[in-house]
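Sequence only, no structure available. Ideas?
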Amino acid sequence: MKKTKIKSILISQPKPEGLKSPYFELAKKHGLKVDFRPFISISPVHYKEFKTQKINILEFTAIILNSRNSVDHFFRMCAELKLETPPEMKYFCVNDSIANYLAKYIQVRKRKVFTGKGTEIELLNVVKNHPTEKYLFACSDWRKPDIEKFMKKNKFHYKESLFYRIISSDLSDLTHVNYDIIVFFSPADIRSLFENFPKFKQNKTNIASFGATTSKAIIDAKLNINISAPSLQYPSMVMALDKFIEGHNKGL
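Reply:
I predicted one. C-alpha cells follow.
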C-alpha cells in the first residue's frame, strides 16, 4: 500500500476560542487541514431534578471526580443549591490534570486532594487507603461500573449521583468526509462514532487517543491506536501528533 502524506486531522472537541492554539501552530508547521467537531455535548442536570435524587452533598466527606466535566457540574450544583463545601472535604481525582483543575473553584493547596494515575481502577488503589470516608461520586449518566463494584465489595459508605448527561452529537454531515487522523479524548467519543457510523472501518485512518480510559474504549471497539498521549515523552496530544506526523511525512 502506497504511503501518502498526512494532510488532514479531525479533533473531536470544540474549536479553540481566539487565534492562539497549539493546534493552529501544528497545522501551520505541517501544512495541515485541522477541523474541530465535538463528538459529544454535555447537558447539565437541573437542580430541581438533582433534588429528586435525595442527595445531601454536605453529608459526604469525600467527592470522587473523574473528569473536568464532573468538577464543573459538581461546583455548579453546589452554587445553585447555595452550598459551600467545608475545608475538610476530601477530593479524589482520577489524575493530576483534574486535581489541578480544582483550582478553578477552590484553593487546592489548602484542601485535601488525592489523585490516581489516570484510570478509575488506579484511583481505587488510593481510595482503599481511606475506608472510613463517606464517598459521593459526581458522575454522568454514562459511566463504567468499576467504582460502584469496588465500593460495594468493600462495604464503603458510597453513593453516586447524576450531575450531568453526555449526549452524542449528530455527525451525519461527515458521512463522506475522510481524515488522515482522528483524535479522540473520551470513551464517549467512541460511543458517538459508532452511534453515528455503525459500520465504521478504520482502513488507512490513523487514530489518536488521549488518556487510558479512551484507549481502552478504542481497543474494545477493535480499532488500532496509532498515536497516544499523555506520556512521559509526550505530555500533550499536540506533541504526540507533531512527532508522529514528522516521522510519517519524512521523505514523502
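The chain has a mean pLDDT of 92.
Hope that gets you unstuck.
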